[in-house]
């Protein structure tokens, strides 16, 4: 049977009841709101900032479910901003240890060691293997009674990319843009030509590229009015309820850079190369993607995610 081809997917109509395939990690259907809410507690220089977000499940159901499942399992608690840039701060992959961070943060090579030691990759895979993360990406698909199906044994530990450049998904109306304060599910760019299968809705199985469906736990906070990580290539799944507390948080970091580093951001962080894994074993993946090395601008004074709590489902 030939593969189904899809030119456009309208996902603005996803119902409030989350329906999934019968695979490991899929939960029973429950009534959920179109717009869950989350509160992220950030900490910097001894001060905490509680920032509230609205999540857009009605338009980005897989991403929001994935984020909620990670938050429910306390995955994001006590993690750090591991890559500081002018308009985006990246987090979700590395834990915080106060003593170790203070000891190693001034030295780039030592920070490489710190991040490798405090990577949350194993914790993420443990959640996946225990069925606590609902799959949306598969290495293969099969047939049963002449109908396409996916099997739990083929589930991959990544989340489907809900953005246009993946499988030409279009939001019916109200799509989020990459704006100040928004949250974006993040992934490292890949060379891999590997094909996988995604399940945008309960009755669709679509062949797609692994490289646009390879996000795991990382997300970015947009701290500027513009960003090169736009909504065509990254899932923008949440926006601020109010800018006030987030403004205070961002301003505190920038004021610290001004007061303690002469306003030079590069003095605030150590640039260090870190090996990032891809949580899979695709045989025809580009060698460049196997043990890929990425440069992080790691803050010398930690920017901490103390907790991510879901306050409305």
Folded structure, characterized:
With 313 residues, this protein is α+β, with helices and mostly antiparallel strands. It has six helices and 18 strands. The strands form five sheets. The protein has a nine-stranded antiparallel β-sheet with strand order 4-18-2-3-15-11-14-6-5. It has a three-stranded antiparallel β-sheet with strand order 7-12-13, with no helix packed on it. It starts with 8 loop residues before the first strand and ends with a strand.
Keywords, please?
313 residues, 19% helix, three-stranded antiparallel β-sheet, disordered N terminus, 18 strands, 6 helices, alpha+beta
What topology emerges from the helices and strands here?
Blueprint: E1 9-10, E2 37-44, E3 47-55, H1 61-72, E4 79-80, E5 83-84, E6 88-91, H2 98-104, H3 108-117, H4 121-129, E7 137-138, E8 142-144, E9 147-149, H5 164-167, E10 169-170, E11 183-185, E12 195-198, E13 206-209, E14 219-222, E15 235-240, H6 244-261, E16 269-276, E17 292-299, E18 303-312
Parallel strand pairs: 1-10
Antiparallel strand pairs: 2-3, 2-18, 3-15, 4-18, 5-6, 6-14, 7-12, 8-9, 11-14, 11-15, 12-13, 16-17
Could you give the order of strands across the largest sheet?
A: 4-18-2-3-15-11-14-6-5
Which stretches are low in confidence, meaning pLDDT under 50 for 5 or more residues running? 1-9, 11-29
**What is the helical fraction, as a range of percent?**
10-25%
Measure the end-to-end span: 40 Å
Task: Tell me the number of helical segments per DSSP (H or I, 4 or more residues long).
Answer: 6
Query: Beta fraction of the residues?
Result: 25-35%
Based on DSSP secondary structure assignment, what is the total number of beta strands? 18
Order of helices and strands: EEEHEEEHHHEEEHEEEEEEHEEE
Specify the structural class: alpha+beta
Q: Can you tell me the overall shape?
A: globular
Radius of gyration: 19 Å
> What's the rounded overall pLDDT mean?
90
What does the oligomeric state look like here?
single chain
Largest sheet: 9 strands, antiparallel
